């Protein structure tokens, strides 16, 4: 059986980006296990804003070796890098991918993560907490009406102060 993983970094004060979407505060000099994680992933699921931001941050699309789905209310079809799906298609897609034994990575942004949490699609949370306070921004977790019980699977500290927490969702 496959799984859906939220693998994401946040500031110590709980933000995934600044209010304008900028991630200039985020360190990228150290791998923190990302390459190994990325090799384990079959499918990448992004929100439309995150997808568009990738093209502003890099010259080459970093996920060409993966199946990529972009959740969007406004775009349909596909382009050379991704297939666009409507928000209501995300749950059936992730269930089908899990049944096929695929590991899917929920990349972001905040609205997509909120939808995935609300629909109980995430099986594993891999959170990287950077020791930086950015003051304001878009929070990783928004208010949620459902309680989700998690089990801590791993804690890893890095010499530069980065903290990695890995949780699985309790059935």
Task: Describe this structure as you would to a colleague.
The chain is of the alpha/beta class. Helix content is about 20%, strand content about 35%. It is built from four helices and eleven strands; from the N terminus they run ββαβαβββαβαββββ. The strands form two sheets. It has a nine-stranded mixed sheet with strand order 5-6-4-3-7-1-8-11-10. Strands 2-9 form a two-stranded antiparallel ribbon. The model has no long low-confidence stretch (mean pLDDT about 95).
Instruction: Work out the number of β strands.
Output: 11
Strand order of the largest sheet: 5-6-4-3-7-1-8-11-10
Q: How many helices?
A: 4
Categorize the overall geometry: globular
Percentage beta strand = 25-35%
Through-space gap between termini: 14 Å
What is the CA-based Rg, rounded?
15 Å
Given as residue ranges, the uncertain stretches (5+ residues, pLDDT < 50) are: none
Structural class: alpha/beta
Largest sheet data: 9 strands, mixed
H/E element sequence: EEHEHEEEHEHEEEE
State mean pLDDT (0 to 100 scale): 94
Query: Roughly what percent helix?
Result: 10-25%
Structure summarized in a few sentences:
The protein is α/β, with parallel strands linked by helices. It is built from 4 helices and 11 strands, in the order ββαβαβββαβαββββ.
């Amino acid at each position: 059986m496959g799984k859906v993983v939220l693998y994401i970094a946040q500031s110590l004060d709980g933000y995934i980006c600044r209010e304008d979407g900028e991630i200039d505060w985020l360190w990228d000099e150290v791998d923190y296990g990302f390459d190994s994680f990325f090799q384990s992933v079959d499918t990448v699921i992004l929100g439309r804003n995150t997808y568009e931001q990738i093209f502003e941050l890099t010259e080459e699309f970093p996920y060409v070796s993966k199946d990529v789905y972009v959740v969007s209310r406004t775009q349909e079809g596909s382009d050379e890098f991704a297939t666009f799906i409507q928000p209501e298609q995300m749950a059936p897609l992730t269930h089908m991918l899990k049944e096929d034994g695929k590991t899917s990575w929920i990349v972001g942004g905040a609205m997509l993560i909120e939808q995935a949490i609300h629909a109980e699609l995430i099986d594993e949370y891999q959170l990287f907490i950077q020791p930086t306070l950015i003051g304001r921004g878009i929070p990783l977790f928004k208010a949620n009406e459902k309680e989700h019980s998690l089990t801590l699977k791993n804690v890893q500290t890095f010499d530069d102060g980065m903290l990695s927490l890995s949780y699985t969702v309790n059935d």
